Every structure is written in structure tokens, then in C-alpha cells.
Amino acid sequence: MGSFTGSVSPTTSTTIHDRFAKILRQETDIRQPRVLHPVENEGLRLLILENISLEAVNAFKAQGLHVDHYAKAMSEDELITKIGSYHGIGIRSKTKITEKVIKAATKLLVIGCFCIGTNQVDLKAAASAGIPVFNSPFSNSRSVAELVMSELVVLSRQLFERSYELRQGLWNKQSKGCWEIRGKTLGIVGYGHIGSQLSVLAESFGMRVVFYDVINLMPLGTARQVESLDALLSEADFVTLHVPELPETINMISSDQLALMKKGSYLINNARGKVVDIPALIESLQSGHLAGAAIDVFPSEPGSNGAPFDDQVNPWASTLRALHNVILTPHIGGSTEEAQRMIGQEVSQALIRYIGLGSTIGAVNFPEVDLRAITEEAGHVRVCYVHKNQPGVLRQVNEAFEPYNVEKQYSDSKGDVAYLMADIAHVSPTDVTHLQETIRRTNANILTRLLA
Q: Is residue 376 pLDDT above 70, yes or no?
């Protein structure tokens, strides 16, 4: 991994102070908290892609960080070319951070996913390189839940069909095949933050709610958990999916599962594109077994707005587009002003806290470690040490700490990676570089940073 070089300018110190003053004031330590900055500093650079909220971009800039902001995603080749000069990157769902990209990211400290999912990042490769990944697992839950509610009504009333016909000049007022959602059964697959919020909204519309999840959960309202996915599919009038993309969820809805659904029922997928076998769904819609579907996510998605969604993206795209009573939307589940603002705030603050304080609370691929604020007394240094999870490491590090007073220390591990934070007192300016290099020479070192 690359390191910071050079000295800290007065301007940098001022902006770092502003960045962390609010956070540090909240600490319980009765002494005046001290502002931290990297001992080595070459000017931190962030690459922000996919039109992430300007509030997040401005939050970074307000802390004196250099930000390059792009509206589009970048391909693997583009990232490999550019990533080497950046210390942090912010993405949404279209940009893929692969192992090749991570190997090219010689200075990268942190990755921010400004969305719920993190399957677009090679989490294991990032952790092995000492790079924590942060996301926003809850901020767009309401937006997705409200989209599902709108889709329930639009599908059951055939609104897209009637609207299209009228735009073509055809007046076709009819009630056949159009239903109220009141009294119908909604089946929720995955009862997490989105599924549980949706459950409450659906009951307020007078729907019955059943849900399936791999763990036993406390239902909200009068919702009822069923013992299996098959049981849910056979009971529900509407089935909505809210699960992550995992090996066990890929094509979890295919021909056999669709056959179990009620004739005339509806399927909604705002989760991940590979969860549904789209050719099998098309067959079920064409046969009339399903009355309709709403699809917001796809196995392959265009990289930017304005790009075509055709058979070159997915070989069945034109067939799916031609079906009646099928709602197709371009992955807009979390695309509301409120959700993007909250996501921008949450993820940007997580990145700022890691860069400046070393905190990994909320990281999805990394040990979660944090310490209360370092104090104002001179000679205090915070050590942030990412290392291989192997025996004997703490002994080596504590030997390096032996000449100093260790005020507080905490470490944890996750898989093959461990992370230690320690606040060391009585470190003279001339000792800082020696201390850092001593820790970096330990045989388990992945990344060592000192904040002072």
C-alpha cells in the first residue's frame, strides 16, 4: 500500500479541525479533545462517481479534501488507469471494484458505496489490502417501500396499459382484470429494513401480509412469518423480493417457483437483478399464469443514463419490453431526493471518520474498531494498524510501544484481517517516524497509519 508523504500545512490543519470538531465534542472524555491528522500527508484525493449527491461532495470539499466528481460509472480499465492517484473512492451500483482495480489502487485507503448493496465490490480483496468498505444499508428503505406500494396499485389497476392506450388515442374504459389491493395477500421475501417497512404500509392499505426470511423475526402489525418460500409463493397474490445477491439467492425465483405462484398473481423485484430468472418470468407472463410484474433491477444494466436497454445488454430485453402489464424501471428504487441526501450524509461521514479518526464502525468487510477522542495533551499519537490475523502480532506491536505510555488500545479481527487502534502518549516529534516504520516492519503488516 502507498503512504502519505510530506508535511501538513496550516490550511490542512484548520480544515481537519473543522471536520472533526463536532464529532469530538460528542465524546465523553472530560478533557478537551484533540484534532487528528495524518502524520504523513500528500493531500488526500477522492474519486466520486455515478452522480453521487452534491451534498456528499461538498462535505468532502469542506474538509479540505480534493474531490474529482463524475456523473458516470467507470469501467474496470478506466479505473485501473485512474485509481492509483486516489486515497478514497465513492460509487453507487454500476461501478465494479474488482481485484484488478484494488491491486492498481496503491494509495487507496477506503471505499464508500453510496447505496445499500456492496456486491459490486470485491470485499475480500479490499479487506486483504487493508481497505474498509462502507455503505448505507438503511437510508433508502422508505423510498423502495413506497415504490413497491405504487407498483402494487399500478399493476392491479393495469394503469400502464390504460395510460399507453389513451396516449395512442384509444379510449378503453374497463374493469375486467382490475382489482383493489385491499383484502389481497402480499408476500414479502426478506423481512429486513425494507420488507418490514413495506409490511406496515401494506397493512395500512388493508392488505394481509405474510413474509419469509431465513431467520425467525418479530412481525410488525399482524404480519405472519411462513415456514418456507414455497408456502409464501402459493399463498400470496403479490410477491415482492427484498434479498441480497448471494450464491444462494441467484435465480431463487425460476420456473419451479413461478409455477407455485397463484394463477393471476404478480411478481415484483426491486432487490437484485440475478435473483429472478428473467426468461422463466417471461414464459410465465406469456402463458398468462402471472397477471403482471414489476422489475426495477436486471442481471446487466447500462452504465449511464441515455444508454440503450436492448438485447445487447440483456438478450431478452426486447421481448420483456413488449409484454403488457409489466412495469420496467431503470433501478430507481432508492432514487429520491430524500434517500440520496441521507445516503450522501451517512457514507461521507463514515469515510471522513475513517480517514481522520481511524474508526471502522459500520464497515461491511472489516473489523469494527473505534476509540474515544485523543486528548489535547502534547505527544499523543493514534496508531491505526491493519494486519494479518495471525499469532504473535500483538506481542510485536506492544514491543514497539514499550518506550511509550499506551493510554488506550483496542483490536478486533474479521476473517484473515485484524485491526488495532492505540493512543500512545509521550511520543516526541523525532520518534514519530521511527515508531511508524517499526510497526510497518512487523511481518503481519498490511497498512499502518499514524494520526497525531
A: no
Give the pLDDT confidence of 398-437 residue by residue, as tens digits. 999 998 999 999 999 999 999 999 999 888 888 888 898 9
Q: What is the model's pTM?
A: 0.78
Domain ranges, ordered by start, for the chain: 10-138+339-377, 142-328
d(CA 21, CA 114): 24
Residue 303 region, left (φ>0) first, then alpha (ψ -120 to 50), else beta?
alpha
Provide DSSP, 236-279. -SEEEE-----TTTTT-BSHHHHHHSPTTEEEEE-S-GGGB-HH
Which strands form 133-134's sheet, in the order they lie side by side? 66-69, 45-48, 88-91, 110-113, 133-134
Per-residue cell: 406: 499506551
- Is 10 exposed, middle or buried (CB count within 10 Å of its CB: 0-12, 13-18, 19+)? exposed
Compute the distance between CA of residue 156 and CA of residue 179 in angstroms, rounded to an integer: 5
User: Grid cell 422489475 — which residue?
Assistant: 295
Give catalytic residue positions.
Answer: 272, 301, 331
Q: Give the integer Cα–Cα distance in Å for 183 and 112.
A: 42
Phi, psi dihedral angles at 110 (to 5 degrees): -155, 150
pLDDT digits (tens, 9 = 90+) for 319-369: 999 999 999 999 999 999 999 999 999 999 999 999 989 999 999 999 999
What's the whole-number mean pLDDT along residues 129-157? 96
Which string of b and e fits 72-108 if b means at least 16 CB within 10 Å?
bbbeeeebbebbeebbbbbbbbbbbbeeebbebbebb
- Domain 10-138+339-377 fold is Rossmann fold (3.40.50)
Same fold, 10-138+339-377 and 142-328: yes
Residues 6+ away with beta carbon under 8 Å from 383: 401, 420, 421, 422, 423, 424, 435, 439, 448, 449, 450
Residue type, 310: D
Q: Class assignment of domain 142-328? A: alpha beta
CA distance 413 to 389: 7
Cell of 48: 466520486
